[in-house]
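Cont'd.
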Amino acid sequence: MSHSEFSRANNSCSVTRRRLLTGAGALAVLGSRPASAVLKLDVTQGNVQPMPIALPDFVSGGQGEGDTGRNVTGVITNNLQRSGLFAPINPAAFIEKITNSDSVPRFPDWRAINAQALVTGRMTRQSDGRLKAEFRLWDVFAGTQLDGKQYFTTPDNWRRIAHIISDAVYERLTGEKGYFDSRIVFVDETGPKDRRVKRLAIMDQDGAGVRYLTRGDDLVLTPRFNPSTQEITYMSYGQGDPRVYLLNIETGQREIVGNFPGMTFAPRFSPDGQRVIMSLQQGGNANLFVMDLRSKQTTRLTDTPAIDTAPCYSPDGTRICFESDRGGSQQIYVMPAGGGAAQRISFGDGHHSTPVWSPRGDYIAFTGQARGNFAIGILKPDGSGERVLTEGFHNEGPTFAPNGRVLMFFRDVGQGPALFTIDITGRNEAKVPTPSYASDPAWSPLLS
Amino acid sequence: MRKATAISAGLHAAVLLWATLSFSGKTFDVTPAESLPVDLVSEKDFSQITKGVKDAPKVEMPKPMAEKKAEEPPKPVEEAKPKITEKKEVQAAKDSSPPEPQKAQPDPIAEKIKQQDDPKQTKLDQPLPPKKPPPKPQPKFEPDKIAALLDKRDPQRVAAAGPELNEASLGAVNGTAAQLSQSEIDALRARLKQCWNPPVGAADASKLYVVFRVLFKRDGTLQTNPVLVEAPPSQVGPVLAESAKRALLQCQPYTMLKPEHYDQWKDMQITFDPREMFGG
């Protein structure tokens, strides 16, 4: 897939990074004016609310691409709306009808419906059969183009294109990377409660394109993505002891990680994808081990008469957070990646388990258990700033979106589990559509 | 007894009748008072009106005159002082050798003969008659100034009398009464707060703010696009600046700014700083 940025139209007024860097110089020039003539005002509070954005259907550059354009716009609209940071405007309110995505829109028409941003685009079938997707992002009130890109892909890949465009719009307007072009691996659950069939499944982050990775013969748990390759690791109860497996998503190839005497569980990749860290149960205890995937060499990281499990690397790979009951109850500890002294960081109410380090490194998400309720919360790696995001009968297994802004977890209110997303601010909780019951989600890194 | 009762009743009736007639006069008409125009002046406005201005130009007010002014005193005569600038330096005798002895000795006989020949010398020896002192200058009698002549009060030397009035305390013509009030600034700030939707990415930046220079028209709209004048380099910087610019453009016109204060709000420097709201 190739993409290139095409010329920006009318961007003379847009604020570029260089301009920001030279801002101090500009101040010095303006500073020569008499200071008394300028009234100074500080605005330190804003009104964080979903940004109204207009997303008219992408126009068709040829014959028969009208549906594709509409579908792409639909996916982008859905993505942006689900993020909670944008409020797509109802197309019925649009005054101007976009017929040519190359011309500058009539900004007063879009201002009239209070749109702050506008996305126009075009889908064209090339002579070689490929699909060309173009889009432009406009700042309606400043009257400038903020972004403009084009992509080439196969026609059946339009959904992916829509996610990539969503990410571009998200990043340009919020200042941080998007997370739409990513996938979720989860455990799909069907059948009655006493005879649940659990299969590994993968889908786009918006719930589209579900694909099953295992047949459902074995009981599978805790799938985790490899940060760098199309590989997942999970735990499976097959014949005999539960084991940790590696599975290549593309080829379907499967292998056992290590050959330990005892049960292995709670696997997770290191940030470079070269190692797998997991728990090994020996007797009544469980300790942490790390295995190098190339040399197959294993290293023991903890040696305690307690249950140490759910290990997770920090994004820089220097530290590990894990759950342990060495202090009497399940709490979160942090230790160096090579093992050593562990420091307890969770001191809040009740138990803390299943810690997950944010890809940004700023937070560790956990499942909290207190007073018969399960909560999803976050705290900083030094143990400060503990915050509960959602609480209820059963919430478990948080996983971070690639940008560290959104968490996905599963919730079971009685009948069966379902997937939910929530912002790390605790707002914008939303259910993720799945074909049936779903649990144990794991968010992939960005695909592009 | 009956007679007395009758008289008493009659008198009572008479008093009652008189009172009824005399007290039930015309009704009192309340003349409606004319309504007075009242300006509601806030404490701040009042203090601004009466406030002195430190850097205001000094106003020269005509000083009240004294009733009687002394005559111009005669100019003191300059004393003829010898100028000492040309004072010659006393030269020490260069020659330390003793002076030469006088060659010619005066002849006393020749002197005497000379005195007899000179008649002026003898006149000078006689005493001179005493001179008359010059007459005192008498004030000239002017009939127009009789009143002044009769005024026997001591003359006052200076014209100014009494303490000078502090003009500034009464409020200068170009004082600060027309100053932008705090409520207008607060209203503008509240409006911008309502309009400004800072990007969520800004929450991660610990040191982030943008400063815009904004030129307004008298009707409260923006004269030009806001100009970015200061921003620390940051990944989120451009997005933050755009959000602030969008807020400024979207929320115009700013009608809370009163046209009479236009001079003060036509040029503003507005800082958008999300650190406080994101708990940075």
